[in-house]
Amino acid sequence: MLSNIIGLTSFAVLVRILANPLSNVFQKQLTRQGANPLFVISATYGVLMLVCLVFRSQLRFTSLPLEFWQSMLIASLFAMFGNVFLVKAMHLGDLSVLGPINAYKAIVGMLIGIFLLNEIPGWWGLAGVFLIVAGSYIVLNTSQQRQQGSLPSISTGILQRPAVRLRLAALVFSAIDGAFLKKAILLSTPTVAFFYWCVLGFGFTFIWISLSLRPTWRAQATLLLSHKTTYLALCATVGITQMASNIALERIPVGYALALFQTSALVSVLFGYKFFNEQNILRKLIGAGIMVAGAVLIAILG
Predict the structure, then answer these.
(1) Cβ neighbours of residue 44 under 8 Å, at least 6 residues apart?
(2) What pTM, to 2 d.p., does this model score?
(3) What is the pLDDT of residues 68-121, one digit of tens each?
């Protein structure tokens, strides 16, 4: 029984590592065609919600405690902002840079663990933080900066880049979302939490669209129909990513799960080269590898 649980958890983590960067590829492709990030996320939520309704007989609609609804509302709200910021970042920046930057989520997860769960990191966890920061310097150090003989600092190399600022905001929101989502999962099941993640996410984004995108939603809907294959591929990969995340979160601590998920940084670098012809891939692979090593230290020894 224990081996089956470990096997399912490992499989879920592996699936999540592969599916998440692929969803980022589809998000970037759609925004390059003029799709609004908010509309992309809302459409994704909506399609996944409709798919879930096909299996509604297996879902629980009653007898869920108040704490579940509180956790799901908070998780869904933070997830919405995190996903919209993520897609906007993908539109502005390189996948091979923004993927590795997501390894900072392991640090955010560690901080959440300190303040909310009283999980104090050990020396190996702090070493993991150092490796993540060091690796990010390598990833963000562009060829132009090397020619100028300078290394990026936190202020000039990271925070002044709009795409990176958006990606950092997205990972903070998604890390907080993960903590509350885990609480909701433990009060229900990964499947039930996934369904309400879709329903509430669609509701929140629909309200946002009603307030901000009324003049352009018809054009966005037309774009959706003309790129329906990419949209469907995005929905499939996002659904797989989120369901795999839910299964992993049910079985392992939030901070460790977030750290393990960041091994997808290497996949993001390769996808950036394969699909968008992004440059300096060898340097980015080295930096991403260092960041992954830091995330693994946090997950296994921190």
Answers:
(1) 83, 231, 234, 235, 238
(2) 0.82
(3) 999 999 999 999 999 999 999 888 887 767 767 776 776 777 777 677 656 666
Locate 300 and state its tokens: 């296994």
Sorted by sequence, the CB contacts under 8 Å of residue 155 that are 6+ apart come out as none
CA atoms within 13 A on the CB side of 111: 10
